[in-house]
Design goal:
Length: about 80
């Protein structure tokens, strides 16, 4: 049994194009489809600087000398 490997893509309309298929006319063939794994985009981890840049203007009204603020800052050090 002969085996040939073709890499191709299924088109939007579901058509699968196989190159040079005409030379196999009037012959029985068996087709096995192996799907390549889908690569997922991995988002890079954000740095603490990116976080502060994004959120720094959101909490600008916090009084630094506030007792509650200072207590929380001490607690989470």
């Amino acid at each position: 049994m002969e085996a040939y490997k073709f890499e191709t893509m299924v088109l939007e309309n579901g058509v699968l194009e196989i190159p040079e298929i005409s030379r196999y006319k009037n012959r029985m063939i068996e087709i096995i489809i192996m799907l390549n794994p889908v690569t997922e985009k991995v988002e890079k981890k954000k740095s603490i600087d990116d976080f502060f840049e994004k959120w720094s203007g959101r909490f600008a009204e916090v009084e630094i000398d506030d007792i509650r603020y200072n207590a929380l800052m001490e607690k989470h050090r």
